Amino acid sequence: EAKKIGMEVDDETTLKALDDIYKNNNITAEQFKAMLISEGRDLESYKNIVRDQILTSQIIKMEVGSGTAVSEGDIRQYYLENKKDYQVPARPIASHIMFIHEKDVSKEETQLKKKKAQEILHRIRSGEDFSELAKKYSEDVSGHSGGKLGVVERGVTMLEFEDAVFSLKVGEVSNIVETKNGFHIIKCDEILPKYFKTYKEVRSEIDRLLSISKRNKKYHKWMKRL
């Protein structure tokens, strides 16, 4: 189709594409020639393949790339109809006191760590300040700031930790939570309420999504005609 309308790819463009292949694969031109020979091919025949690929790209860009702009009205309508997809769920702001699992330690030492965590938990339940206990006993770097972890997102922490922190109410303290990294006592300091991202925040994302969809439809229609 490109050749029908007289589209051509000059040698300079072809050689630049080959240079990109050498660069991206970290090989020299001579090494590439040797690879082609070992496969029963030569550089000239490969150049023809590259030219056809470039021609294909150019004709698709010309036929499909134009006329795929999305109107402001379409973007806004998509946002209103799919607003639920842009909801950010409620997220806890949490603190923790951590007793780290050391590598290759005995069961006895692990049990001592757990016992220490249980003692600290008992002191918290008895009314002692969580932040002060974190500063004094937590073995995690967050201990310096009273165990503060900030906002906890889904899919970022270990599953056991995530399940525990997302089940807490504001001000509530968990039981001992064991992960592969150690024993945790978790406190929910605050819960950020769920909210919807604004149109401004997601406009470019929707524009890109609708443009791709429009381009794909145009491409398939064009291919069917060919």
List keywords for this structure.
two-stranded antiparallel sheet; single chain; 226 residues; alpha+beta
Describe this structure as you would to a colleague.
With about 230 residues, the chain is an alpha+beta fold. It is about 50% helix and about 15% strand. It is built from eight helices and six strands, in the order H-H-H-H-E-E-H-H-E-H-E-E-E-H. Strands 3-2-5-4 form a four-stranded antiparallel sheet, sandwiched between helices. Strands 1-6 form a two-stranded antiparallel sheet. Strand 4 and strand 5 form a beta hairpin.
Topology of helices and strands:
Layout: H1 11-24, H2 29-38, H3 43-64, H4 72-81, E1 87-88, E2 91-100, H5 107-125, H6 130-137, E3 148-151, H7 159-166, E4 177-179, E5 182-192, E6 195-196, H8 199-225
Antiparallel strand pairs: 1-6, 2-3, 2-5, 4-5
Helix pairs in contact: 1-3, 4-8
Q: Which sheet architecture does the biggest sheet show?
A: 4 strands, antiparallel
Q: Would you list the SSEs in sequence order as H and E?
A: HHHHEEHHEHEEEH
* Number of separate strands: 6
Mean pLDDT: 93
Q: Span from first to last CA?
A: 8 Å
State Rg.
30 Å
Q: Tally the helices.
A: 8
Shape: elongated
Helix content: 40-55%
Structural class: alpha+beta
Quick recap:
This protein has eight helices and six strands. It has 226 residues and is an alpha+beta fold. A hairpin with a 2-residue loop joins β4 and β5 (182-192).
